[in-house]
Structure formats: structure tokens, C-alpha cells
User: Which sequence fits this backbone?
């Protein structure tokens, strides 16, 4: 008998027996139909047991995966649908298939799909069902990671901001009802969409992950068991392999272990001993296939890093060979193609109050396929090695997509943020003390905090518990910039009735580790010396749609917090490009009202990827929010990205 690892109890189910019973039932039904037909005088052909096709199955037997009864090795790559535009999905998936991969792995970020409580989005870049079907069309199986926490260097690890609005002290990633309740509602919506796409139901999904690297955060078995029960309720038992993944560390694996109903896999990158790492996978399970669920092809890059992450092709290929030569192990490349942290969806990392590292807009990751989906030397090195272990699809190897240089764009019009508040403020709230983004019901973007001094103030202005970057204005003149975690104070000398405005940017909620709870804005208050200031007005600025902005014909030079506008023309079919931000300080860029993401002169990223689907044949627009001032408001396009 073939034993399924998906059982929720102590007993196990024989899939071979079930399949045999199914076959016998079908044969019996055919014989019964034959009796009735013969009674009517007709001749029929009764199918034999061999003629009855078994339903599709993907299970664990001994130390192997079995796909429809035959041993199978997963060779997978992570490609996130929410970091690439839908028009480009097939291109990225096809290139993975052409490299010799047979599976694609990806997260499902809760915050993309439930932006506000009870309001669900499965359209456009959030159309995960279409993405799964497209993977199957290309020829790939799917390993799914539904969360509800995903990490992934994504904003708040994929958790929606409103979890902190409903309960600022909620027990994140736990059985706290104020967390598990919304998770349950989310999964009650998501999982029924996925059930028809399981491999056993004719779809491509062969594995579904329970939470994500949970042992590196918690040990709440009641929480994990509740998620596993939701899977059982909506996806079934014996229908798909449920699994977890953690680093090859006893404490981590112990934290995520809830018994044999969830198969444990591990993560590790190039270097070290593959066989030694795989030994750790079996701390709590005696058998099963060796699986590296996150084999790191590159790494994260943060703003301010000396250079972009770079892991050599030689190191990746050599360690990959060691993995593939160990117990016919399965592997997933994290990432195979990274994509882009569009708009405000980048995450951040923090090891404590004195540490806050912001992930850049590009999620290139130094992966085998670039941010723009182009094959690299690493891609071809992996492809060549895999040819020794699997069949590479026939046909020409993939080539880079064509790029265009649309030249320089003169930003001939502008308007200041202060002149645009009536247009841009989604809400204005007055309160005695400053409120956080979450209390103001703002997911991403900026808040402008304003107060009028009742008395003159002189000394040190301090923002207590600042998250994350503050532009402090006195009577609309910039006094200075404060940045978590480096500084939260500046000198001030202000007369009575002076106005203080503080523009605060949410630079990305923490996505990993014990400091995951990361409310934005001002959590405590603003004071001069020891005296707190009261009577605040707060304007929320999501900047989700800039189409109503009114520009003047004369741009403001070196003015902080200013929007600049320009146009350019695309002749012929639009092509990918890169917008080079030389001379600009910090801000965001919108092309045709699509937020490409953040730029920052501290590097190491100095250009933004412009995917062709957002461009128009003919006239196009660029809007730039420059927070710190620019002398010459001109940007230029390039056919390649600018780094370091």
C-alpha cells in the first residue's frame, strides 16, 4: 500500500486501495449497465479494469513523490504573479519551462486580495486563478503558498494593514481570535477558488504550504492546526500534499511541526553541505523525499546597500548539483524571476528598534531571469546542468525581450503638495494627538500632520516613535528630514501661531522576524523638548490616483514635495524600458497613472523598470513626486537598468 502523509489522525489511508476500489466500482457499474443493455437486445463492449483510467494522483511513497504512480522529482522556480503584469505572465512561465523546470511555486499575498475587510480583489494583477491555469497551459505543476503570512520581502509579509486597525495589539500569526478570525474569513473565500485547481481534480496544484517559515517566528500549534483544518475543510484529505518549510534548524522545525499530516521541507542556499542540511529535514519525520523549498539564487537588496545582491553563477550551479545528487532531492529556486515591488508594496527588515532596512523597488534578486524577464548567465548555467537530470524542451533557447530608449523627458509642469491637498487628501481627521496610519485607515502612502503653535517654541522638536521618514515644515518651509532609525529630532525656533507640518512616508511595513508589528506614522506624539504638542489635523495621502492633479506651466526648481509632469511619445508597438532618475533625490514615479515604485538617490538602484503593458502607442505621461528637490527636472529612458 502507498501511504499518504496527509492524514490528520494517527491512521493512514491506502491510496492504492482507494484507487482499486474506484476501478472495481467503475467496472461493476459498466457490467450492470451491460446487463440492462443486453436485456434490451443490444450488443456492448464491457471495458476491462485496465481500460479504466485512474484519477490523477500526486502522493508521497517512501522517499519519493509519485505522480500518477511514477517517481517524480520537483524542479521548481518561484515566480510571483503580483510582481509581474498579467500580460507578461506567460513569457516568464514559459522561460522557466524552457530551462527544464516542471513546477512553479508562489505566494498568495492576503493584502493584495483583501485590501479592506470583506472586499476581495481577484482581477488584473490579482487574478491568481488565471495565473494557475496559465501555468498548467505552459506545462508546469504548481506549489502554492497561501500564507496567510508570506514574508517575501513584501509589505507586512502580505498581511493587510487593517489587522492593526481592528486591534493594534493583535497577536499576529497566532490563534488570537482577532487574527485567526479574519484569516478564517479570508480562507473561506480563497480556498474554494483553489479546490478545482488541485491536481487530483484535474488542475496543476500538487502541494499547498501551511503558513510560511513559521518556526522562525512562533510555536502556536493551535494556530497551525486551525489553518490545517481549514485546508481539510475546503481542499479535502488525500487530495493534495500539505507541507511546511523552515530553515535547517531544530528550533525552527520544532516550531512548525504539527504531526505527519503536514510534510516538513527546508530552505537553504548555495554553500555548505546539501546532505547535512537534508538530514535536518528529518528531525521530526522518518522518511519522505528530500526537498529544498527555497534554494536561494540571489538575495535581498536594501536601500543604502553598497551594491545590489550578487551570488555567482558558479556557486549556484555547483550547490545545485550537490542537491540534485543527494537522494534524488527536489528543489525550488527562490527566486527564478523576481519582478518588481510596484507602488508602495516593498517590505522592510528589522532586528530591533535601532534597525530598519528598506527593500528596494526592484525585486530582481539576482535571479536567473532578470526583473525584466531576460535570461542571464545564471539561467543558462542552471539549464545546462538540468539537462543532465531531465529533458530540456526542444526549440531555441529564450532571448532577452526587446527594449526601447524613449529619450529624455522634459518635466515642463509642476505643482506643490501643499497646493494639491484639496485634490489628494482622501480624508482629513482632527484629534488632540497624532494618530497612526492604521488608526486613520490608511494602508500605504503618506500622512500630512499639521498643528498651529499656541505659544512660541524653541529647542528640539522630537517625533516620538517615528515610522518611517518625516519631512518637517515650518510655515511650509522645509526645516529638515528625519529618518527611522537614525534620527527623530531637529532644532526649531518658532513664533506663536506658526504652523508645523510633518509629511510622513510609510516606507514599508516589516515583513520578517519578531518586530513584525510595525504601525506607521506617529505612535506616541510630537514634542518640543519635554512638552508635547496637541491639536493635530491629519490629511491622508494614498496617492492611488493622480489623474485629477492640476499643474502650472512653470516648474518649481529645488522645491521639496513637488509633483512634476511631462509627456513622451511611443512610436510603434510599446517595448520595455528603464527610467533613469539621475539628479533626483527621493520619491515615486507614475507612468500613465501607474505607480512604478520608489526611487532614492542613496542607491544602489538608480532606475525604475517600465514594463511595456503600461505604455500607449502615441502619447504617454510621467508624473514624479520629488520629496527633496531637483535642480533640472528632466528624466531619461534607457534600454538597461542602472545600478551601483
Assistant:
Amino acid at each position: 500500500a502507498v501511504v499518504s502523509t496527509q492524514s490528520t489522525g494517527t491512521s493512514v489511508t491506502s491510496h492504492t486501495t482507494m484507487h482499486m476500489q474506484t476501478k472495481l466500482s467503475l467496472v461493476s457499474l459498466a457490467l450492470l449497465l451491460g446487463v440492462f443493455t443486453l436485456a434490451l437486445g443490444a450488443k456492448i463492449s464491457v471495458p476491462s479494469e485496465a481500460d479504466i483510467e485512474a484519477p490523477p494522483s500526486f502522493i508521497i511513497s517512501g522517499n519519493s513523490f509519485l505522480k500518477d504512480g511514477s517517481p517524480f522529482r520537483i524542479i521548481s522556480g518561484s515566480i510571483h504573479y503580483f510582481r509581474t503584469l498579467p500580460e507578461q505572465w506567460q513569457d516568464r512561465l514559459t522561460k522557466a519551462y524552457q530551462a527544464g523546470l516542471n513546477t512553479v511555486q508562489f505566494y498568495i499575498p492576503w493584502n493584495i486580495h483583501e485590501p479592506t475587510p470583506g472586499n476581495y480583489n481577484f482581477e488584473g494583477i490579482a487574478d491568481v486563478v488565471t495565473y494557475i491555469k496559465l501555468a498548467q497551459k505552459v506545462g508546469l505543476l504548481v506549489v502554492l503558498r497561501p500564507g496567510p503570512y508570506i514574508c517575501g520581502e513584501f509589505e507586512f509579509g502580505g498581511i493587510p494593514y487593517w489587522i492593526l486597525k481592528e486591534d493594534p495589539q493583535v497577536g499576529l500569526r497566532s490563534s488570537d481570535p482577532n487574527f485567526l478570525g479574519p484569516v478564517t474569513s479570508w480562507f473561506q473565500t480563497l480556498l474554494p477558488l483553489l479546490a478545482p485547481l488541485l491536481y487530483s481534480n484535474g488542475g496543476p496544484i500538487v502541494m499547498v504550504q501551511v503558513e510560511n517559515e513559521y518556526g522562525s517566528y512562533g510555536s502556536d500549534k493551535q494556530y497551525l492546526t486551525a489553518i490545517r483544518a481549514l485546508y481539510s475543510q475546503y481542499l479535502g484529505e488525500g487530495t493534495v500534499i500539505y507541507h511546511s518549510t523552515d530553515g535547517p534548524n531544530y528550533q525552527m522545525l520544532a516550531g512548525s511541526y504539527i504531526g505527519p499530516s503536514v510534510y516538513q521541507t527546508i530552505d537553504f542556499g548555495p554553500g555548505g553541505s546539501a546532505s547535512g542540511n537534508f538530514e535536518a529535514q528529518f528531525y521530526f519525520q522518518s522518511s519522505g523525499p528530500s526537498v529544498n523549498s527555497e534554494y536561494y539564487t540571489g538575495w535581498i537588496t536594501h536601500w543604502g546597500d553598497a551594491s545590489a545582491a550578487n551570488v555567482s553563477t558558479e556557486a549556484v550551479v555547483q550547490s545545485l548539483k550537490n542537491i540534485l545528487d543527494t537522494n534524488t532531492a527536489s528543489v525550488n529556486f527562490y527566486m527564478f524571476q523576481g519582478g518588481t515591488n510596484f507602488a508602495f508594496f516593498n517590505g522592510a527588515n528589522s532586528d530591533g528598534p535601532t534597525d530598519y532596512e528598506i527593500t528596494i523597488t526592484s525585486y530582481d534578486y539576482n535571479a536567473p531571469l532578470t526583473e525584466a524577464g531576460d535570461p542571464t548567465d545564471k539561467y543558462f548555467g542552471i539549464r545546462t546542468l538540468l539537462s543532465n537530470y531531465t529533458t530540456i524542451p526542444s526549440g531555441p533557447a529564450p532571448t532577452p525581450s526587446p527594449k526601447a530608449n524613449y529619450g529624455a523627458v522634459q518635466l515642463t509642469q509642476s505643482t506643490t503638495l501643499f497646493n494639491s491637498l484639496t485634490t489628494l487628501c482622501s480624508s482629513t481627521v482632527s484629534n488632540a494627538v497624532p494618530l497612526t496610519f492604521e488608526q486613520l485607515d490608511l494602508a500605504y502612502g503618506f500622512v500630512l500632520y499639521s498643528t498651529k503653535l499656541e505659544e512660541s517654541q524653541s529647542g528640539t522638536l522630537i517625533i516620538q516613535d517615528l515610522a518611517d521618514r518625516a519631512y518637517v515644515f515650518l510655515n511650509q518651509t522645509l526645516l529638515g528630514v528625519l529618518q527611522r532609525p537614525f534620527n527623530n529630532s531637529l532644532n526649531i525656533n518658532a513664533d506663536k501661531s506658526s504652523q508645523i507640518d510633518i509629511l510622513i512616508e510609510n516606507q514599508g511595513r516589516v515583513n520578517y522576524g519578531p518586530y513584525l508589528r510595525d504601525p506607521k506614522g506617529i505612535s506616541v506624539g510630537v514634542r518640543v523638548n519635554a512638552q508635547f504638542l496637541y491639536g493635530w489635523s491629519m490629511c491622508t495621502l494614498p496617492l492611488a490616483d493622480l489623474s485629477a492633479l492640476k499643474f502650472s506651466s512653470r516648474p518649481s526648481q529645488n522645491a521639496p514635495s513637488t509633483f512634476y509632469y511631462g509627456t513622451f511619445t511611443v512610436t510603434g508597438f510599446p517595448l520595455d524600458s528603464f527610467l533613469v532618475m539621475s539628479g533626483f533625490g527621493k520619491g515615486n514615479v507614475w507612468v500613465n497613472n501607474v505607480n512604478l515604485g520608489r526611487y532614492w538617490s542613496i542607491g544602489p538602484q538608480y532606475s525604475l523598470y517600465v514594463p511595456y503593458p503600461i505604455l500607449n502607442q502615441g502619447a504617454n505621461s510621467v508624473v514624479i513626486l520629488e520629496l527633496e528637490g531637483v535642480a533640472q527636472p528632466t528624466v531619461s529612458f534607457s534600454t538597461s537598468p542602472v545600478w551601483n
The longest strand covers residues 457-467. The CA atoms of residues 309 and 350 lie 18 Å apart.
